[in-house]
Amino acid sequence: MRLFAAVVPPPEQLDELGSVVDRLRRLPGADGLRWTSRPGWHFTLAFMGEVDEELLPELGARLARAAHRTPAFPLRLHGGGHFGRRTLWAGAAGDLDELRLLAERADAAARRSGVPMEEHRRYQAHLTVGRAKGEGTSLRPFVDELGSFEGERWSVAELAFVRSNLPVSGVPGEQPRYETLERWPLAGDGKGAG
């Protein structure tokens, strides 16, 4: 199973972002991007890739502990940017230190459960909204439009464990489907990692 840990914004905040993305999709050059769909919008904390089923009980227990050790914290969708010339994203503002800590705890939980993880890098909060189809599309107008975006604040209160089901039909533009396997409330006793 392709799995990841994530923070999923509430529907109201996704609707706010959706209004901005609807404007982006009307800009010149928007047809040069593949736009991600609202049901898939999330902040990935730790991408685990293919995980053997026998690791799931320990992984779930460790992720639950990571959530229990993290207090709820404020966050809002804010601004945006790009990675290279291909990925357009919306950013976050609020308690980014707590978000990074939750990402580090989710990564540690996966590693300690035996999941082979990529090299650990500093967490960059982002929610992917589009990907350039080719090298010729400039992301600058889209980043400029996202720059003034200020979403309403919400309290991050849970850690989601999500399965990514890759497209299999071969239909161009088909999106992955995301299935939340489990959610753990953030409880925040502040002690250590998963």
Topology:
Elements: E1 2-7, H1 11-24, E2 33-35, E3 43-50, H2 56-68, E4 73-83, E5 87-94, H3 96-112, E6 127-132, H4 140-147, E7 154-156, E8 158-165, E9 177-185
Structural notes for this entry:
The protein has helices spanning 11-24, 56-68, 96-112, 140-147, and strands spanning 2-7, 33-35, 43-50, 73-83, 87-94, 127-132, 154-156, 158-165, 177-185. It is an alpha+beta fold and 194 residues long. Helix 2 packs antiparallel against helix 3. The chain is globular. Mean pLDDT is 90; it is low at 190-194.
Quickly describe the structure.
This protein has about 190 residues and is α+β, with helices and mostly antiparallel strands. About 25% of the residues lie in helices and about 30% in strands. The strands form 2 sheets. Strands 2-6-5-4-7 form a 5-stranded antiparallel beta sheet.
- The number of strands is 9
Give the rounded overall mean pLDDT. Answer: 90
What is the SS-derived class?
alpha+beta
Globally, the shape reads: globular
Report how far apart the termini are: 21 Å
Largest sheet: 5 strands, antiparallel
Number of helices: 4
Cα-based radius of gyration, to the nearest Å: 17 Å
Helix content: 25-40%
- Our estimate of the beta-strand percent is 25-35%
The secondary-structure element order is: EHEEHEEHEHEEE
Low-confidence regions: 190-194
Biggest β-sheet: strands ordered side by side in the sheet: 2-6-5-4-7
